[in-house]
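User: Assemble these into one structure.

Assistant: Restating your components, then the assembled model:
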Amino acid sequence: MAVVFKKPESMTDKTTIYCPGCNHGTIHRIVGEVLDELELRESTIGVAPVGCSVLLYEYFKTDIVEAPHGRAPALATGIKRVRPENTVFCYQGDGDLASIGMAEIMHAANRGEMITVIFVNNANYGMTGGQMAPTTLPGQRTTTTPEGRDVGYHGAPFRMAEIMAGLDPVVYSARVSVSAPGKINKTKKAIKKAFENQKNNTGFSFVEVLSSCPTNWGMTPLQGIEFVKNEMEGYYPLGEFKGGNK
Amino acid sequence: MSNKVLMKGNEAIAEASIRAGLEGYFGYPITPQNEFTAYMSDHMPRRGRAFVQAESEVAAINMVYGASATGARVMTSSSSPGVALMQEGFSYMCGAEVPAVVVNIMRGGPGLGNIGPSQGDYNQATRGGGNGDYRFIVYAPSTVQEAVDLTYEAFDVSDRYRNPVLILGDGALGQMAEPVVLPEDREPGRKEDEGWELTGPKDRDPRAVMSLRLAEGGLKKHNWDLAEKFERIAENETRYELTGEDYDTLVVSFGTAARVAKSSLRAVKEKGEKVELFRPITVSPFPYKQLAEAASKAKKVLVAEMNLGQMLFDVKVAVEGRVPVEFIGSPGGESFTPEEIEEKILSMK
């Protein structure tokens, strides 16, 4: 019987520990497929964040180093500068990248480091139990915004893909979603582009992926997907903000 | 460059690091070690090696962490408040067991303090401000030549134990120029693969460099292993200087303070006093055993430090009450004069 669908070579057989309805599994798989298709696995060093995806080394057959909170782009900078022949990617959540690690991502991007950053935005702190993130939507309830995020009191969400696109040395910045099959295909194209850029030594590439966190949102997996579609994609427009194939 | 040159401490340590085969330098400017960063910015790219002026000390040490996880010889340098910011990275690097060399050219503290030479970071250096049970190897040179030699060697020691090494100097050492013999120039580049370096999993299983240990009992075992490693380090790498065997008073001092104390000793000896200097060269691991033995032959011990008595604690632990221990301190980002120590020794009669 012909095999029509199989696990990417770049991924291990381990079962992930992610909650039902979480999109990390889908995004991991896309990264794995892209590494396979571009034949990058054997040269790749991934940088794992602090948070739900801290166990990246359990799921990818690449080398992985684990960064302190928010510092993944600094580690990636160090790796790529001494080992330019390696493929280096960061996989970060929104608390990690846009809060504690805001300085590191801004400066790595603005130096034009030759790395690929996958930014998973689920509008809250997942691992620590659903607190407000810099990306929590206005009005969204979290454990630290019990009455909903009040922009006048808590500040406004950061639109990271647009911010990245505004930096001159960034060659590619896109926001994608995995809330529907067509969008998953676009996510794969964006992530592939971000790795191709590194393979071709083009420059710093950034892909923001809107992702569901039903456990911390207090929703079912299906409600979570609906929230991404109806609320997140409304506040965070999808698209290629820089370096797209237009 | 000829082998014997007149060089400022900061630049001499930087050159020694490059000669040790440095592949990457990541740092952030802070006085009084700015010549260090400037030297690296000039010499590293010219030799085709990595230099990045980081956005902060936090980023700098994490660049070091990332690069060291690939097995490369890498370093950073800073001064007291900057090193305070690096403590997060130190803890991770010790937990993940990666090598690197860090240089702290200390200034006055706490806080912004001043930019004068100080030894106020002794506790930070030897105990660490990062979380968890971890230890650093800390060398405290007292001359530019010694700083050059210890820095050059520090890379090997750091590699051998996969543990970061700190060179603990101060503003005086960093800023003074002395004639130095520079060590031989070694080629940079990967050492033999030891099985942990991240180089991309070509023709081998994937590897992870991490400090996370979730499995039950895993972290406990790891911490016992780290402690056992540090015992081996203490056994093999502890260094000190004892200037003579015949003394009533033993002065214990490190780094620049020890250098000043040596001048005082000459004057005091001329007055007929029997006094010698015990100088820890590794302040971590601290030479407890060696000091205990040396102090047991003394009638009294004087600790001289440019702080409020941080090494004093270690000296008291070593001496264990066998002889009286007195203290003279200079905590304001200023060095002693030899006369101050001389007067103190004479007053202890």
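The radius of gyration of chain B is 20 Å.
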